[in-house]
Amino acid sequence: MLKKLFACLALAAAACAPVWAQDAAASAPAVAEAASAASALVAAAAEAAASAPAAAASEAAAPAPVPNKGDTAWMMVSTLLVILMTVPGLALFYGGLVRSKNMLSVLMQVTVAFSMVVVLWVLYGYSLAFTEGNAFIGGFDRVLLKGVWDNAAGTFANAATFSKGVYIPEIVFAAFQATFAGITACLIVGAFAERIKFGAVLLFVAIWFTFSYIPIAHMVWFWMGPDAYSSAAVAEEMTSKAGLIWQWGALDFAGGTVVHINAAVAGLVGAYMVGKRIGYGKEAFTPHSLTLTMVGASLLWVGWFGFNAGSALEANGFAALAFANTLVATAAAVLAWCIGEALLKGKASMLGAASGAVAGLVAITPAAGNVGLGGGLIIGFIAGFACLWGVTGLKKLLGADDSLDVFGVHGVGGIVGALLTGVFNSPNLGGPSAVADWVTVGMIAPDAYSIASQVWVQAKGVLLTIVWSGVVSLIAYKIVDMVIGLRVSEEAEREGLDITSHGETAYHK
To answer: Could you write out the DSSP letters of every residue in 411-423?
Structure first.
């Protein structure tokens, strides 16, 4: 089975090689407008030469932008924190929730899927997500990260942040985004844990990453960078080159749509396609180690500061706002979940507190740098109650065996956070507002901000993500089922995937 998988991946890599070998000029990546800015300076110098040779010479001699060392250091730390979220954070959180006979299988699925996506990101993912193409997908100018080292200049290429004239090395931005792609794919495995083939997980992730994660990331996050908006005359043209959802004006600070809703829909479709676990609804599927789950949840919370605050791309006030919101919204969600459990069951549980923390982290992700602390607290409280309903009432309505409640937490939390971002981004409710004009970086005035309009834009982004991920996931699972087969045998499932799929066990009696 794995031979078929590796053969498919080898073919994909071979297909990318000729494209990489082309000696075409690389265009600027999504947020890296340094090359475009440099071209604009050269063009301006040439035009000025006709009337003022001295001024032209001075303009042409202007030094290239130098990345800010503090921002660069913060982004490398943030990248490490997102890796901490995944391996070991998410792996232990999921691992503790399954039965002991499947502990290693979950650790393997998370670790290997993350590693594979990082490799695919370097091969072609970054290029397709963060270079200019069309409203849905980028191009191949950064295949194998070609061009991040500028041979002509003898230095690394720059990536723009959200402030004019402020840059970080593009290679750091690419690495940061690689960790986002990796953890998104790993979130999915919780939906069909304990009964899927290891090879099927990897082949599905490879297909879904290519046709769902990359396009959604491009549609939400690709734009030409602030320095491209040099005048009102080019503003409309620059916006038309951005991803579709960015063009709509949707706000997604760190991945409510790209990461959580995208992965949650894929997980829910997988739960239906793979089928229910043997004995589901008839016997208890008790987590084998809530201690490990708590450790995993704690690591997720710590790592999420890099995930959210790092998405500011600078060590500035918006990073500080995202950092603070990640703290307070998560704490509010823990309290809300515990209150809800106490009202429903008479007791608040450790599993509930850990789940509440993840619910708050998910919901604040799109809002982290887009709402004030008051809005963050409210989003956290609402998410705690909403996700509790997601893993109880909604789960029964859907009728799927979503093993580790991927949709109930990440789907519901992501939708709640994305929609409420449009509400609490309002400067009238303590939010920082949104940029109205990237030429001047002017914000929407309080009297001009329309909550209804922004919530509608947010809803369009949510709906497109749900439909896109759902369709891609359905097709991907069908392909995997035909090539490898999705589910292990009944005998293997009863014995446990640790032994049957990996030949080892987490615990020795």
So the answer is: IHHHHHHHHHHHH
Domains and CATH numbers, the chain: 69-502 (1.10.3430.10)
- Residues 168 and 283: their CA atoms lie apart, in Å, by 53
Tell me the average pLDDT of the chain: 90
- Across-strand partners of 443? 435
Measured between alpha carbons, how far is 402 from 487 in angstroms, rounded to an integer? 15
Report which residue type is found at 81.
L
Closest CA to 477 of 122, 125, 192: 192
* 193-251: pLDDT as tens digits: 999 999 999 999 999 999 999 999 999 999 999 999 999 999 999 999 999 999 999 99
Residue 147 three-state SS? coil
What is the Cα–Cα distance from 194 to 189, expressed in whole angstroms?
10
Q: Which two tokens stand for residue 266?
A: 């894929």
| This prediction's pTM | 0.88
Q: Which helix (H) or strand (E) holds 436?
A: strand 435-437
Mean pLDDT by 10 residues, the chain (509 residues): 48 41 37 40 39 44 80 98 97 97 97 98 98 97 94 90 96 98 98 98 98 98 96 95 98 98 98 96 92 98 98 98 98 98 96 98 98 98 98 96 97 98 98 96 96 98 98 98 97 96 90
Query: What single string gives the DSSP state of each residue in 188-252?
Result: HGGGSTTSB-HHHHHHHHHHHIIIIIHHHHHHHH----GGG--SHHHHHHHHHTS-HHHHHT---
- Displacement of CA 140 from its chain's centroid (Å): 21
Asked if 83 and 115 touch (Cβ cutoff 8 Å), the reply is no
- The confidence score (pLDDT) of residue 64 equals 74
* Residue located via tokens 């914000």: 443
Q: Identify the burial level of 206 via C-beta atoms within 10 angstroms of its C-beta, where 0-12 means exposed, 13-18 middle and 19 or more buried.
A: buried
Q: Which of 265, 12, 35 is nearest to 128 (CA)?
A: 12
d(CA 467, CA 116): 25
Listed in sequence order, the residues at least 6 apart from 396 whose beta carbon sits closer than 8 Å to its beta carbon are none
Q: Alpha-carbon distance 13 to 307, whole Å?
A: 29
pLDDT in tens, 327-355: 999 999 999 999 999 999 999 999 999 99
Residue 184: CA count within 13 A, CB half-sphere: 33
- In sequence order, the 6+-apart residues with CB closer than 8 A to the CB of 366 are 251, 252, 253, 254, 255, 256, 257, 414, 417, 418, 421
